[in-house]
Amino acid sequence: MSQTAPLPKAITPSLEENLLYLHQMLQGCDDFVFRPFRTAADIPGMLVYSILSTDQNFLSQTVLPALYRLEMRPERGFFPEAIRDRLPFLPEKTFTGWPDALVALSGGSTLILLDGVAETFPAATAQVEHRGIERSETEPVIRGPQEAFTEALSPNLAIIRARMKNPDLKINLLKLGEKSHTDVALAYLEGEIQPALLAEIRKRLSGIKLPSVQESGFLTEFLARNSYTPFPLVQSTERPDKVIAAMLEGRGAVLVEGSPFALLLPTTFWHFFQSPDDYFQSFFVGTIIRWIRYLAYILAAALPALYLAFTVFQPDMLPLRFLFSLSAARENVPVPTVVEILIMLIALDIFREAALRLPRSIGPAIGIVGALVLGEAAVSAGIISPIMVIVLALTAISTFAIPTEDLRSTVRIFSYALVLFSSVLGLYGFLLGASAILLHACSLDSLGVPYFAPVATLHWREWQDVFVRAPWPVIGSKQQKIKAQRRGRH
Amino acid sequence: MQPGKLSKRQVMGLLLPFVLSTDVLMIPGAPLELARRGAWLSSLLATFLGVGLTFFIVKLVSWQPRLRVTERFRRLLGRGPGTITGLVFTLFIFFSYILVIREGSELVRISFLPDTPLDVITAGLTLVSMYGALLGMEAVSRFNILVFPFFLLSFILLFLAALSHPEWTNLWHPLQSGIGCVIAGAFAPLSWLGELVVIVFLIPDLSPGEQGTPFFLFFVTLGAGCLMTLNIVTIQISLGWGLGQFYTFPILQVGRSLFSRESLRGLDVLIMTLWVMGVATKLSFLLYYGLHEICHIFRVRNMKSLILPGGLLFQVLSLTSMDSVKELEYVTRYLAPFLALGTYEGIIPILLFPLILRYLKKEGGV
Amino acid sequence: MRFLRGHRVLPVILLCVLLLIPGCWSGHELTDQLIVLGVGLDKVGDQVRLTIQGIRPEAAISTASSPSGSGGSEQPPFSLVAAKGDSVQEALQKITRRVPRFIYGGHNQVFFIGESLAREGIMPYLDLFARSQWSQEAAWVVIARGGTGQELLTTTNLVAKYPSMGLAETVRAHQVDIPTLFQFLLHYHEDSGAQILVSAAAVKNQTAPPGYQMEQLRLQPNAIFQGDKLKGYLDDSDGEAYAWLKYGFQGTRFSFPVSALPGAPVLGVSLSSAPAEFRILSTPDLGVGVEVNCNFSVTEDIPSPLNSPAAIRALENRLDQTLSQRFSLLFAHLQADQADVFNLAEKVHAYHLALWEKDKGRWPEVYAQLPVEITVNCHFRHSGVMSKYPGFKE
């Protein structure tokens, strides 16, 4: 067989030809092992597997002995089906073509090739080391379940299954990534999800053309079909309880092998303010905390800009004594307020980024050094006014009160933009900027559901989970559902 | 945008601030000046007349609600006259756009950015409205729903604040300066209430199930009229007509004098800026539908390409067509009302009424 | 840049850029401002003199932290800038040229108006402030009785560092009502056109021992205005009575002799009430009914123990009489001056339109002839924590 011969797509009955092909394909992959064997009926066979991702104990203790005991011959008809009956560890599916077989092989399966059989049996021997289930780091709660998803897909799905013991929980598996062949799962509750919505999610998932999918974040822009917005249009979470709650609302969840973050969609703006805590505490506490988060979001986006607008353009909005304090604090500050704010905002973001990248043991230390020491030094050196430090500290803390990282990272963009608007036209500029941002947000939709639904679409009944956290008997009786307010175009 | 995408509530939410945002700023000056103590009666009268006008408007739009403006007039009047009528309506939309930009900007400039050139302020408003028009009515209506409660709240808040030292006797004897004055004072508010006629542009975008007979328009007129009256009452009980007529934006003055204590300073600025947001919604609305109709009449495929030149043109027009705020005051109080009532708000819908009846009868016969 | 073309991002960027190209116009850094706390307006010769009491707040705070001793040698914590001009605008222009800071008037507390200017008419000089973009309607209008506005701006004492802010503190602490610019405009446009503004004079507290005689502003609601012109002053007693009628008794301490006999013991009461109610009577002729309902508590009752209902009733009647007399005197003076400061004209206009139409032209004369019927109803509520005079022994 010449090197230039077209590669066969199908598996041939000849073991020799198959091996030749495999050797050719796996050239340079030193981790693949070819282990010959003979069955009890003296049929030569070959096990092909990767030593890196295969459970070799299982292989030697279960797979090989079973193959040695195999007494059937190909002449006796229905050979592959018969073999599968004898070998209980084999999956339902066998491969007759090479591309699928090779993907399975790379995924950790062991290929069983037998002479005279034009099929290959993938034994599920994949074993990749993963970390165990740990506490949620990015979405911690005080009360409630602490477990978070891990990088492995199947344990994640297992958690979901364990929390929703219901055949209506459907999990569709598919592979994405033309090169990486990553497993992706779409989970939803039948009966809760709108069929049109489900079809749309499937359509968008199957339309994804990427060489590799390493994280669920790769998929968000494809699922949202809108890359040019600072607002997150798909919610990501590492908490199984959030996924369950979302599915009960009629939303779909997309999980990706290798990513501890599930994607929930469609998503509205308000979803980012819901934390599981709300639902584990009393109605009053849940509601108040939620309002505090809205306030925190507004402060995080608007406080520096409002400070600028009030002190520089509208001092008559401030009480006289307050004005005195503000003004006295700014004495000796050499730069205009807007420059001061921008310096501080940028410094703040640098601290944040630095503290994030540092090892966990010294991250907080840097945060303290940055915030306290540098801030204090800047104030006493007269470069920054103490009021500005207060304003920016409040802004930063407000940012951290937003429960989801998706939103947290985007709110900074708005604070910069609003500061620039305010610096030109004061409160008027601020409101123009805020109007533009709000208009933009109102034009967004996540899989056909308007971003500000149900508030901006005036579906009163669903407001119970936006402005308040309605008491459980109320929520329980009429579970809020995402109505697919689908628009004509998709 | 695809037609039929706005819900009834959203349209109501759009129309109320649409009518109100201009009706409360400069317009109260007209009845205060003409009807004096009877300003509130003028406003009420305007509300009742407005309900009457709404009847014709409802008739106009309930016939074939899926038709765009020009299409509607072409069917009613024939191709030539219909196109011209459609064009007149569209031009009036732009006329309002120009007036409203200028009004909102003057409010901002006079009350809190006196050193800023007017063109920068109008540019800000124009850009936001252009952006709104670009995003389409769906986004604008959602935005409006988010802003509207605050807009409404500001009315109530001002009225409640005015109740701290009300001079109810300022409202007495409304007919003191004669019934003629009261009627004269009603024209300006009526004409801006009559802006409700823009529903003919909007009706195809209302969701089909709710297009039937848009009776909610009566509610909008009544609601807007009542809020406008509330606004004038607020001015009258806190300023009286004597002082009220001096101010370009009387309600602004009410806000200023009521919220000027040490702890509650400058709420007037907040209220005014909220109204600017309301005005921004209105401007987006006008620009969107005006350009939409122009595209329809002149068969332009891509409406979005017209937004930038259109917006800039109208901004320049709003700056150059009137020299001073006095002129603007004159136009909005005494010129535009008669122009508008004489054509697209009043006379045309009324004249079209028999035609529509004829068509309705014909359809009923078939 | 292909991905930007025809996309939503483009207009957003355009919008930002267009707005950001120019600089900022109406903004002023706090530290570049001279915060105006008080304005003095005086007539000097043919010209108007504008005096501005401005504060550099950063300096104000730093001196506040180090308490000054007896004062005197130290610089005052504020600066006064004055200029003369044919109009307020001209004077302001001169000040603006002289002061290297932006003059910010949004927090102006008070207009001190010199007496000569007040007699000439204050409206032309307040015009500029009434039109200002900064809401100065809340600033008080105070007439400098027998002096100039500038003098009042210099009054300092240890309790209140800045005269105008000290004024604010006094007003807040003692519930004094001073008409603001807005109220002045409002009353100016009412039917009667007459009103009473507060006058102030700087006085030294003569009864205090030497060295402690602080300079203070003595505020009295007694400047009678007809239109925008100062017509005269009420005397002290009338000024007090006016404030009682206009704003009600607000915990007012009041002492009066128990009987008309000379040397009769004095009884102290504390009164509180709503503002008086004015009623226009037209049976058969036009008249005014003034009704005051007030509650009082006894704070000093040295002579007469209030131990019986009859004694209380007697005390109430005595108080009614005393107050009625004060109010009748006030009305007599006001009617003599033809100053309808309670805006009875508006009441007549509202309730008796026909009569008003008839008498509109000669209202001051009609007002001067108006019979006034004063009813005072005082009600005893309590006598402090003790029910009787502590020295009382049976």
How would you describe what is shown here?
Chain C: Residues 223-384 form the Spore germination GerAC-like C-terminal domain. Chain C: InterPro entries: GerAC_N, Spore_GerAC-like, Spore_GerAC-like_C, Spore_GerAC_C_sf. Chain C: One of its GO terms (biological process) is spore germination. Chain C: Residues 28-193 form the Spore germination protein N-terminal domain. Chain C: Belongs to the GerABKC lipoprotein family. Chain A: Belongs to the GerABKA family. The complex is a heterotrimer of chains A (490), B (366) and C (394). Chain A is α+β, with helices and mostly antiparallel strands and 490 residues long. Chain A folds into three domains: 15-123, no CATH class; 153-267, no CATH class; 283-449, no CATH class. Helix content of chain A is 47%, strand content 11%. Chain A contains 16 helices and eleven strands. Chain A is elongated and about 100 Å long. Chain B is mostly helical. Chain B has one domain (8-362): Amino acid/polyamine transporter I, CATH 1.20.1740. Chain B has 15 helices and no strands. The mean pLDDT of chain B is 87. Chain C folds into two domains: 27-233, no CATH class; 247-394, GMP Synthetase, Chain A, domain 3, CATH 3.30.300.210. Helices cover 35% and strands 29% of the residues of chain C. Chain C is built from 13 helices and 14 strands. Chain C has helices at residues 9-20, 57-65, 88-98, 115-120, 123-131, 149-154, 163-174, 181-188, 236-247, 309-337, 344-351, 353-359, 363-369; strands at 33-44, 47-55, 79-85, 102-104, 110-114, 140-144, 194-204, 215-226, 229-233, 250-257, 266-273, 277-281, 287-300, 372-382. In chain C, the strands form two sheets. In chain C, strands 1, 2, 3, 4, 5, 6, 7, 8 and 9 form a nine-stranded mixed beta sheet that branches. The longest helix of chain C is centred in the last third of the chain and has 29 residues, at 309-337. Chain C is globular, with a radius of gyration of 27 Å. Chains in contact: A-B, A-C, B-C. Chains A and B meet through helix 15 of A and helix 1, helix 6, helix 7 and helix 12 of B.
